Amino acid sequence: MTESNPRRTLPRWHPDPLARSAIERIRSCGLAVTAHDGLCAEHAHDHDDACPYAYTSGRSLHTEPELVVYGLGAEAAVDVLCDTIDEFEFHDWQQLVSDGTEYAVESIDVPLRLVEVVDTTDLHATNLLFPNATVLQVVWPDDHGVYPWEHGYSLEPRAQYLKGVEGFARDVGPRVISRSTGPNRAQRRKRKR
Description:
The chain has 5 helices and 6 strands, in the order αβββααβαββα. The chain is α+β, with helices and mostly antiparallel strands and 193 residues long. The protein has one domain (11-171). A hairpin with an 8-residue loop joins strand 2 (53-57) and strand 3. The longest helix has 14 residues, at 74-87. The chain starts with 16 loop residues before the first helix and ends with a helix. The relative contact order is 0.15.
């Protein structure tokens, strides 16, 4: 039995330059990390502060979650993402998320936690290439060890956008499709007219 190459499921080309760049990096390295140190487009109207973040693309090819981290500079963010990927060799990511377990990495001197992302609008390349990917946010605490969802968090929300749900891991198992006894799509459209 031969193992199929997951990179073959990537498109050969994409009209978006960021997606094309991610495809090239995934093909050559197995993973693409995209870092943004400027303004987030959807938050630019709210304030003039920078909204740095970095995210992965390509882990979905291996049925692993994509990752994102907010509030760190590009170099630190990339290091945190790579160290978190290394942690998955020792810990089950689903268990880390569902239990709210803290873990440590070498690149940053604070404990980290994972939450499942519900708002993936900032992950442009990942959304274009893997629109149904599971995405986890790496979250860091303030100077007192308090996380953004806990009482007493001392940083402003724009220091680290929280795009996920704490303590929740989506079941990524198979979907069950059952026969419906209701009207089909054509019948529903006809009724709406």
